[in-house]
Amino acid sequence: MTTTLIRVGHSPDPDDAFMFYALAHGKIATGDLEFRHELQDIETLNQRARRRELEVTAVSLHAYPYIAADYALLPTGCSMGDQYGPMVVARHPMTVDELRASTIAIPGILTTAFLTLNLLLGRDFKYVVVPFDQILEEVSSGRVDAGLIIHEGQLTFGTLGLHLVVDLGVWWQESTGLPLPLGGNVVRRDLGNDLIVRVSRLLRQSIQYALDHRSDALDYALQYGRDLDGPLADRFVGMYVNKWTLDYGDRGRAAVRELLRRGAEAGIVPTLPSVDFVNDA
């Protein structure tokens, strides 16, 4: 049987590992499709998507306007901050106004965290790009004034004696009444509709399998949980693999459109004529 290779890019983090557990371990039948998983940090995946290198990949929603001509948003795989999200932390208590005069370590210029921080602060603030898993150390050492943290750092920053300045997911929800859509899975449009629908359905099956076999999927995901024990990994996965991940739903789709509309209005991202999602029904 001739197989079709589908390269899937995702982050080496507990939530993505949990989401793709079934596909990575042959727990669901994929027929003539061979899925090859390529694990890299989200900013690297954003840049690879701009070069059209992967058939399927996780991306920051901030990056989507730059790749929308080549990729469609899948209805599954969303990481949604529902009254929580990326955080800015510092060594000492600080106000948002003080933050505007600070140097902030960020995990990448195409991350949704950075887009949201721009919407909060305006575009005139100092930042340095630091690998996401080194930001807490940059802050605690004093090399930067504050850090924009994503992934499991949201649960562990307190162990370093750092202080929360602002939770961007909370700020966004208070501003819009919507959850904050952080990342999603996209599929390259040139695969054609039939193959796109097949891939979309398999990704949905993988997520559902992990939710139905939570203990096994968590055991696998835990190997990617830097500084997370079992209970913390379970909590982190629950934050970002849930009902939103199976399908954005109308409210989640509205949140994506509002985020990108505000980003375009602020001159941060290109304006999209529409934001379309794959229909795999």
Which short descriptors sum up this protein?
281 residues, alpha/beta, D-Maltodextrin-Binding Protein, domain 2, 6-stranded mixed β-sheet, 14 helices, 11 strands, 20% strand, globular
Please explain how this structure is put together.
The structure is a single chain. The chain is α/β, with parallel strands linked by helices. It has two domains: 4-80 and 180-265, D-Maltodextrin-Binding Protein, domain 2; 87-176, D-Maltodextrin-Binding Protein, domain 2, CATH 3.40.190. Helix content is 42%, strand content 20%. The protein has helices at 14-19, 21-24, 42-50, 64-67, 96-99, 112-121, 135-141, 153-156, 168-176, 193-212, 214-221, 230-240, 243-246, 249-265; strands spanning 4-10, 33-39, 56-60, 71-73, 79-81, 87-90, 103-106, 126-129, 146-149, 163-167, 180-188. The strands form two sheets. Strands 1, 2, 3, 4, 5 and 11 form a six-stranded mixed sheet that branches. Strands 8-7-9-6-10 form a five-stranded mixed sheet, with helices on both faces. Helix 10 packs across helix 11 (214-221). It starts with a strand and ends in a 16-residue tail after the last helix. The mean pLDDT is 93.
In short:
With 281 residues, this protein is α/β, with parallel strands linked by helices. The chain has two domains: 4-80 and 180-265, D-Maltodextrin-Binding Protein, domain 2; 87-176, Periplasmic binding protein-like II (D-Maltodextrin-Binding Protein, domain 2, 3-Layer(aba) Sandwich), CATH 3.40.190.10. The chain contains 14 helices and eleven strands.
